[in-house]
Amino acid sequence: MTTRTGPPAPEIRHVTVVGCGLIGTSVALALRAEGVRVTLADHDPRSLSEAVRMGAGLALAAGEPPADVVVIATPPSTVAAVLRDAQARGLGAVYTDVASTKGRILSSAELTGCDMSTYVPGHPMAGREVSGTGAARADLFAGRKWALCPGPATALLAALTVTELAALCGAQVCLLSPYAHDRAVAAVSHAPLVLSAALAARFAYTREGADVLALTGRGLYDVTRVAGSPPELWIDILEHNAEAVADMLEQVVDDLAAVGAALREADGSARWGVVADLLVRGNLGRELIVDAYARRAPAEGVELEAA
Amino acid sequence: MTTRTGPPAPEIRHVTVVGCGLIGTSVALALRAEGVRVTLADHDPRSLSEAVRMGAGLALAAGEPPADVVVIATPPSTVAAVLRDAQARGLGAVYTDVASTKGRILSSAELTGCDMSTYVPGHPMAGREVSGTGAARADLFAGRKWALCPGPATALLAALTVTELAALCGAQVCLLSPYAHDRAVAAVSHAPLVLSAALAARFAYTREGADVLALTGRGLYDVTRVAGSPPELWIDILEHNAEAVADMLEQVVDDLAAVGAALREADGSARWGVVADLLVRGNLGRELIVDAYARRAPAEGVELEAA
To answer: Which segments constitute the Prephenate/arogenate dehydrogenase domain (chains A, B) (predicted)?
Structure first.
């Protein structure tokens, strides 16, 4: 057991989750499993009633006392408006969100006049290639990182409360600046999804597709797994992290174009330097990715990483 | 049980495998499990003795009677020379190889004066991201496709014999022209490997790599899995299928560059058409890939697909 220094963890007894999709309902299920009272809201009554049926909590009723934490689990482009509305209604003492990008949401929240002292921007690093309420799982965050990106005005107690919420879900918090967070997720998540989609797209609309795909193996299956993710959600995510994703894509395109050109050159062993260089760098990068993935195993205590 | 029409399957009692890497040793192990006598050769005495220790067969001795089939499991660039040498030594009645490309090997074999009537170019669609003798498994080909690309001079009996060999390994044969084969594997295997390497390469040599990779999830892990493949083998494969791989890479680069440019554009909902189009095509392609992968389950009998 890791010894935790600093103030004791704030106690969380009641959480309101706004948005009963994959992430919101999974947070609710994880909290319910820890005995937390959960109230739920969603603009789609079917998602709400499905989440209630799954045991994720009760529908938020008018006149409910404020929750210890309000978790906003709606698409990135809606977070600032939902936050402002929730704060205006006094739904909770502390607010957090789970959107995949942070920089632009933080600016929008400031610009729309949200109370920035009680808002702790967050992003649990977990997901599935299937979406929707029905795909939610109580253990979705077990052993995962949960990024928190507090702004300059965020109160310490608010940050500690959301850290406790992440811990109740089985995740480990890491602290990042919104900028560092957005660059990192562009690299490990958003740009890889675009790459995966660009490869999978080659197999759409092709008459010969079936013949070609008869020879498919696990390689193509794995490389294109995230290409099955819901476009409507990802258009929103990519819009919110456009610059960082574009930077990463352009670097990948440079490498691919160089290899393509090398493959077109007339025979000559020198041109193979380009191909060998990419494959060797690919091996090195893959080793680091495998190491990082292996370190993702569940650990006790809460880890705070300044960045 | 599928009823097979045509001549009865030729009986295979003795096979010689030249090249005791992952594929050659896996073929040998699969055949040994079916009671076939296997003799082994490799220019590296350590690989040879490791394969013998694993029970893949006995080392090929001088004066051995010709095998029913000789399986050439050496890198693509060496196949034609190894085939010519094996035929000159009278090592077998029928010859096949397992290289990932077919067109250029077939031309080289013709140009170097091989007997094309007893040679059946082949390619079992199986592999692992780890290579070498020790990674071999008797069930590597179970339920997999095994492409055969006979040339105009290939004798029917030779093709039937290699079809039986593939069936003994648990695989299903599909017949393809060398050109169609090479385009198909560029699409489902070779270009995806280059893409995966280009993404993984972004995480090599970066000081900030560790911080960024702390947020990694299964998406990046899956997309970069094949980037761990051995560069020396893949340089050889890409050299042999350069044009088809370049065609595929250029199409992917076009899509990625268009999305990169759209992400750079000033705000405007029209530009999101480019991003949405790619993500939707990615979804469609992914569906077809998942279907094709699911159909890869083991099936009885031998399937012959003309293409």
So the answer is: 13-297
